[in-house]
């Protein structure tokens, strides 16, 4: 536009640059065609064909630090993009969940259970997981399963053990972890006519009862012990869960232990 103003209206270059807000250096700049672009493209093609898992960063560092070329990274990246050499990254599968509704308090035991995972470490540094299940009616802890790995089949086995003495729930609320969305757990729920209520991804408040239980377990059990082994952690979990259900007052249900509210119901 500045060049057109100078050619058509005969104004000075300085005035044209002031009007359009550019410098005279920018006005007088002439792009220099470089014959090295073909060399850069050839190197990039050869590198990406030889090293199929190399991205732009490794290719550029190889050309700069190994081969000694002084090409600017922006120039190399521009050619890299024009050649469409970007690594194909598999996008993360995002599950679309409808809003599960308000988090109501059940009116009787075994209407809705909640389940979730936690993690901690042994003294040796190994990470272990805990599988926690509670009854939303009286916040009673129904079970804590502890092990180094808790796949979907282990989750099903733990739920079957709880159902054997407690009875079958109408629904179970959970998040979208891989163990919960596995086909084996879905088939198990269908066989037992149990509804799985999935919360929306990134919305832990929709599973607030078990999240509050996890916080209590973290502060009053996990943070207060050093676990020598999985058996030691499971023993302490069983002892703490009995105390939580039978002796610890729960402010969410009127300041009484969960077992007392269940007996009253």
Automatic annotation (TrEMBL):
<dbReference type="InterPro" id="IPR036397">
    <property type="entry name" value="RNaseH_sf"/>
</dbReference>
<dbReference type="InterPro" id="IPR012337">
    <property type="entry name" value="RNaseH-like_sf"/>
</dbReference>
<dbReference type="InterPro" id="IPR048020">
    <property type="entry name" value="Transpos_IS3"/>
</dbReference>
<dbReference type="GO" id="GO:0015074">
    <property type="term" value="P:DNA integration"/>
</dbReference>
<dbReference type="InterPro" id="IPR001584">
    <property type="entry name" value="Integrase_cat-core"/>
</dbReference>
<dbReference type="GO" id="GO:0003676">
    <property type="term" value="F:nucleic acid binding"/>
</dbReference>
<dbReference type="Pfam" id="PF13683">
    <property type="entry name" value="rve_3"/>
</dbReference>
<protein>
    <submittedName>
        <fullName>Transposase</fullName>
    </submittedName>
</protein>
<feature type="domain" description="Integrase catalytic">
    <location>
        <begin position="105"/>
        <end position="265"/>
    </location>
</feature>
């Amino acid at each position: 536009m500045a060049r057109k103003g100078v050619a058509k209206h005969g104004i000075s270059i300085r005035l044209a640059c002031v009007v359009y807000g550019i410098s005279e250096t920018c006005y007088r700049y002439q792009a220099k065609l470089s014959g090295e672009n073909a060399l850069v493209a050839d190197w990039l093609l050869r590198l990406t064909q030889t090293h199929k898992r190399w991205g732009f960063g490794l290719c550029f560092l190889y050309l700069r630090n190994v081969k000694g070329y002084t090409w600017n990274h922006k120039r190399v990246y521009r050619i890299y993009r024009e050649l469409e050499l970007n690594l194909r990254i598999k996008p993360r599968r995002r599950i679309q969940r409808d809003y599960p509704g308000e988090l109501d308090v059940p009116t009787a035991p075994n209407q809705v259970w909640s389940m979730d995972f936690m993690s901690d470490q042994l003294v040796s540094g190994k990470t272990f997981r805990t599988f926690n299940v509670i009854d939303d009616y009286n916040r009673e802890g129904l079970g804590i399963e502890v092990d180094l790995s808790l796949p979907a089949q282990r989750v099903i086995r733990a739920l079957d053990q709880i159902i054997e003495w407690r009875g079958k729930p109408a629904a179970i609320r959970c998040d979208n972890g891989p163990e919960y969305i596995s086909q084996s757990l879905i088939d198990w729920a269908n066989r037992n006519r149990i509804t799985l209520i999935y919360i929306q991804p990134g919305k832990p408040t929709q599973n607030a009862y078990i999240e509050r239980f996890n916080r209590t377990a973290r502060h009053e059990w996990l943070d207060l012990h050093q676990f020598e082994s999985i058996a030691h952690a499971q023993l302490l979990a069983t002892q703490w869960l009995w105390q939580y259900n039978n002796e610890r007052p729960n402010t969410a249900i009127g300041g009484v232990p969960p077992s007392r509210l269940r007996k009253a119901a």
